[in-house]
């Protein structure tokens, strides 16, 4: 499946794996609220990336913009996880760096789609 070879897909896939790996260290009360919401957002972003990779250039832009909106929402929820001590600062920084890189990749994809 060639869709799985695109770098932004790999990076988002890795983000989910890392996020999932942290799950057992999260208090149960948070695991089924904000943590679950973050997990779902990452999965939605992954889904949008796969969808966009299969669409024509004209159809890609709205899907990529939805992915960007979800990514921004994920940033807010991750910050909330840090502020409420669900995530320690070290884990937050590592996740946020990955989210930032995905954001740059997504921004570049959006820009290249608009330019065509």
Task: Provide structural commentary.
The protein is mostly helical. It has a single domain, classed as 23S rRNA-intervening sequence (de novo design (two linked rop proteins), Up-down Bundle), CATH 1.20.1440.60. The protein is built from five helices and no strands. Helix 4 runs antiparallel to helix 5. The longest helix has 27 residues. The protein is elongated. The mean pLDDT is 94.
Comma- or semicolon-separated keywords:
single chain, 116 residues, mainly alpha, de novo design (two linked rop proteins), 5 helices, 0% strand
The CATH architecture classification is: Up-down Bundle
- The class by helix and strand makeup works out as mainly alpha
Assign the CATH topology. de novo design (two linked rop proteins)
The number of helical segments is 5
| CA-CA gap between termini | 25 Å
Write out the CATH superfamily name: 23S rRNA-intervening sequence
Q: Gyration radius, to the nearest Å?
A: 15 Å
Overall 3D form: elongated
- Percent in helix: over 70%
Number of distinct beta strands: 0
- Assembly classification: single chain
Largest sheet: none
User: What is the class in the CATH system?
Assistant: Mainly Alpha
Low-confidence stretches: none
* Overall residue-averaged pLDDT value: 94
Number of domains: 1
| Approximate strand percentage | under 5%
Q: Please trace the helix and strand order, writing H or E for each element.
A: HHHHH
């Amino acid at each position: 499946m060639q869709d799985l070879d695109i770098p932004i897909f790999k990076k988002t896939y890795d983000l989910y794996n890392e996020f999932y790996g942290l799950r057992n260290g999260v208090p149960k009360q948070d695991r089924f609220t904000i943590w679950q919401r973050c997990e779902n957002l990452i999965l939605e972003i992954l889904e949008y990336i796969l969808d966009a990779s299969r669409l024509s250039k004209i159809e890609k832009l709205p899907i990529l913009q939805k992915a960007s909106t979800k990514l921004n929402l994920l940033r807010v929820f991750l910050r909330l996880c840090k502020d409420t001590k669900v995530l320690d600062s070290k884990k937050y920084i590592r996740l946020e760096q990955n989210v930032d890189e995905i954001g740059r990749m997504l921004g570049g994809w959006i820009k290249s789609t608009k330019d065509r």
